[in-house]
Fold this protein.
Amino acid sequence: MLNYIWAILIMVGIMVAAFTGTMENVSTGILDSSREAIQLCIVMLGVVGMWTGIMKLAEATGLVRQLTRLLMPMLRLLFPRIAGDEKAMGYIAANMVANLLGLGWAATPTGLQAMKELQRIHRETCRVTGGDPNAASDEMCFFMVINISSLQLIPINMIAYRSQYGSVHPGAIILPGMIATFVSTLAGVLYGLWRCRRGGRK
Amino acid sequence: MSLMGIISMVSNFLIPLVIFYIVGYGILNREKVYDIFIRGVKDGFRIVVDIAPTLVGLMVAVGIIRTSGALNILAKLLAPVGEFFRVPAEVLPLILVRMFSTSAANGLVFDLFKEFGTDSQIGMLASIVMSCTESIFYILSVYFLAVGIKKTRWTLVGGLIATMAGIIASVVISTLLFH
C-alpha cells in the first residue's frame, strides 16, 4: 500500500508543479527534504537511544513485568472469554505495556504473537461452533481497536521532533497528549465492550 | 503564568520523574544500571538506523507534494469540511495521511512546524493528534495479514471511532490552550 501512496505523492506533486510553475521549488525541496531526514535521524539517535536505554533498565529490573501484572485484572474485564488462557493474555498484556511506554518496536512482535494466540483460540472455537475461521473474533477486533486507539503515555518521538524544530516547550504536549490518548482509548474500549456484549447475546 | 506554562511545567516533571524512579529502583536492586542503559541505547540506535531509509523516502515525497503547492490546493478544497468540524484546514491533510503512514504524517507535521511554529495552535494541534492516533490501515494490514484473517468485522469502525474521539479531544485541548 505504501508503494502506491509514495508513487502518488511524488507523481501528483510533480504534475501540480508542472502546471503551477513551482518546479524550481520542487527541485530544491527534494534535496532539502532528503538532507532534513538525516538531520532528524541524528537528533533521534540521541533521544530514542536515551529512551530505549531507560526502558531496557526498566525491563532488566523487572519493572516492566510488574506493570504487566498490574494490568492483568483490567485485561480480564476486557477479555472475559479468554481470561483463562495464560499465553494469550500474557502476550496481550506485554503488548499493551510496550505501547504504554512508547516502545512501538517492542509492541509489534508481542502484538503479532498475541494475534496468533487469539487466532488459535478462534480456530478451536470455530471447530466447535462452525464459525468462519477467516473472520476476526470479537477478541481480535477488540485487541486491534485498543492498539489503534494509541496507548502511548509519553510521546517521546514527538518531543524530539518538536525540539528539533525549535519549540520552546517541546515537552508541553505530554499532558495534553495523555488526555487525548485517554479519550481515544476510552472511546475504543466503550465501543468494543458494546460490540462484544452484543455478539455474546446472539 | 500562562496555561501553556503550567502544562509545560507539569509535563516537564514527568520524564525526569520516570527516569529517577527507574534508575533508583535499579540501583537499589543492585543492577549494573549504567551497563544495561548503554545496551539499551545501542538497541535504540539500531531502530533509528532501520527507519532512516523510510524517513528519507517519505520526507522526499512529502517535500515534493508540499513545495509543488498541491497541499495548499488540497487544504483550500477541504476548507469547508474543516470549518464544519472546526479543524484548521491545514491540519486536514495530516489527519488523512496519519491513518495510512506514521512517517509520511511526520513529514507533514514538520511542514506545519516550519510554517506556523511548533508552539503555535496548529503546531500544538498537530503534535497532540500525532500523539493520540495510530496508522489504522497500516496496523490492520500488518496484524490481520499475519494471522490470515480476511474479514475484519468491526475493527475498522472501532478504530475510526477511537481516532475521531482522539482528534476531537486534540482540537478541544489545543483550542483551550490558546483562549
About this structure: Chain B touches chain A through 106 residues (CB under 8 Å). Residues 4 and 177 of chain B are 6 Å apart (CA to CA).
